[in-house]
Amino acid sequence: MNKITFSTFLTSNTDLDETMIAELMRHCRTLFFKKGDFLLRQGDTCHASFFVEKGLVRQYGIDNEGKEHILQFAPEGWIVTDRDSLYNKTPAAYFIQAIEDTSIFLIEEELVSKLTKSHSNFTTFNDTLLHNHIRQLTKRIYQLLSASAEDRYLSFIKTYPDILLRVPQTMVASYLGITPESLSRVRKSLSGKNFKK
Amino acid sequence: MNKITFSTFLTSNTDLDETMIAELMRHCRTLFFKKGDFLLRQGDTCHASFFVEKGLVRQYGIDNEGKEHILQFAPEGWIVTDRDSLYNKTPAAYFIQAIEDTSIFLIEEELVSKLTKSHSNFTTFNDTLLHNHIRQLTKRIYQLLSASAEDRYLSFIKTYPDILLRVPQTMVASYLGITPESLSRVRKSLSGKNFKK
DNA sequence: CGCCGAGTTGAACTGAATCAAGAAACGTGG
DNA sequence: CCACGTTTCTTGATTCAGTTCAACTCGGCG
Q1: Which of A88, A150, A192, B92 could form a disulfide with B85 if both were Cys (CB 3.0 to 4.6 A apart)?
Q2: Of the candidates A34, A105, A144, A113, the residue with the CA atom closest to the CA atom of residue B174
Q3: CB atoms within 10 A of CB A30
């Protein structure tokens, strides 16, 4: 997967002007994380948003039996952060971790709130991010309520075909809310169905 | 449950000033819905946010087997809307319905976007709403991924003790993602456990 | 080569769904 | 205020999707 710079992303996905984008660039920096490194740990307070330029990141929690549950994946061109921790300055409930070598464009929250106050364009941009996030979360809840493991897997393939190929099946299972064994069986059963056609 | 006016709500939960609040009041109106009435139907485009002054409302979808799945309840003092439909002016994917006789303070989106442009206080207020929503949705996803039906029910009781007493168990079950029969059994099993203590 | 983690497969088990029937609660009209 | 039908809740018997635990396979990598 190719690198996507934040400035390219902004140019093609928002109507922020050149000056605004240049201003942003000037105050931010790119960080590199090795596979397995943490961008944010549970308990830490989150101070920034993470734009994934290259690589792949996941947000997940660990329950009291030690099991991991993945809330979301963020590949190139996605922004990931702990909104609750960021906005309310509370300790994060979840981890954010690189699952490939990853380059992150770091957007400090302090900068965001400054720009939000002075530039209405930027406010709109931020608003859009929040709304997209809400749409995505709502859809996911609806799926968890209404669809079987197989349906959720099919929907995952369709929505994130690239991610499927880049992460171990264990993680896909964790995202879907099933065990790795179950996912393996779902896949087997589906491959059978395809042959019959 | 007592009536909560939007202006009281704003006074005690935001730092919007009197003038701002009065301005808002002047451009909005209160609507009354009978139990069973729809505030928004699937397929309609949503143009407003609904502040519940009195009564109780639910947002839900119907799957292709005709089953209902409740995304959220909104009792007095809550705001409910279809953010996706509202923001992107697309047809709503879910219904919003009164499940008690309900009085709704209607906040047109047109007004919100006007105020957002002119008053930074109001922008902040709106931003807070979005962040609260995201926090709530994220927590729900994590629970659906990690907790058993019993745990989810216990958490529901704790978080929404009032709602539990106001809606039929069928709807609680639908919110939790289980059947009414299962919920009945969970409750029975829990009452057994309490006696043993 | 040999190890090691990821994926697969099998067998037994379990939480929850389904189907069906009965009991309780509820509201509406007479 | 009672009688009725309707909805809600409970209970039982059965089925099923998904879990658990354990053993085995496979492909990559030191």
Answers
A1: B92
A2: A144
A3: 13
Exposed, middle or buried, B154 (CB in 10 Å: 0-12/13-18/19+)? middle
3-state secondary structure chain A: CCCCCHHHHHHHHCCCCHHHHHHHHHHCEEEEECCCCEEECCCCECCEEEEEEECCEEEEEECCCCCEEEEEEECCCCEECCHHHHHHCCECCCEEEECCCEEEEEEEHHHHHHHHHHCHHHHHHHHHHHHHHHHHHHHHHHHHHHCCHHHHHHHHHHHCHHHHHHCCHHHHHHHHCCCHHHHHHHHHHHHHHHHHC
Q: Chain A partners of B127 at a C-beta cutoff of 8 Å? A: 126-127, 130
Question: Tell me: the pLDDT tens digits for B138-179?
Answer: 999 999 999 999 999 999 999 999 999 999 999 999 999 999
What is the rounded average pLDDT of the residues A125-133?
A: 96
Q: Is the CB of A148 under 7 A from strand C?
A: no
Half-sphere exposure at residue B104, Cβ-oriented, CA atoms within 13 angstroms: 29
Nearest chain A CA: its distance from B26 CA (Å):
25
Confidence of residue B118 (pLDDT cuts 50, 70, 90): confident
- Find the CB nearest A134 among B83, B140, B146: B83
What's the confidence (pLDDT) of residue B193? Answer: 66
Q: Is the pLDDT of residue B194 over 80?
A: no
pLDDT digits 0-9 by tens, A27-60: 999 999 999 999 999 999 999 999 999 999 999 9
Instruction: Please measure the distance between the N-terminal and C-terminal CA atoms of chain B and give it in whole angstroms.
Output: 33
Give me the amino acid identity at A53: E
> In whole angstroms, how far apart are CA B27 and each of A108, A135, B87?
37, 28, 20
Rounded distance, CA B76 to CA B55, Å? Answer: 6
- Of A17-26, A37-46, A64-73, B32-41, minimum mean pLDDT range: A17-26
User: Which chain A residue's Cα is nearest to B144?
Assistant: A144
Q: What's the average model confidence in pLDDT over B13-38?
A: 91
Task: Give ∠ CA B58-B9-B161 in degrees, rounded to 5.
Answer: 45
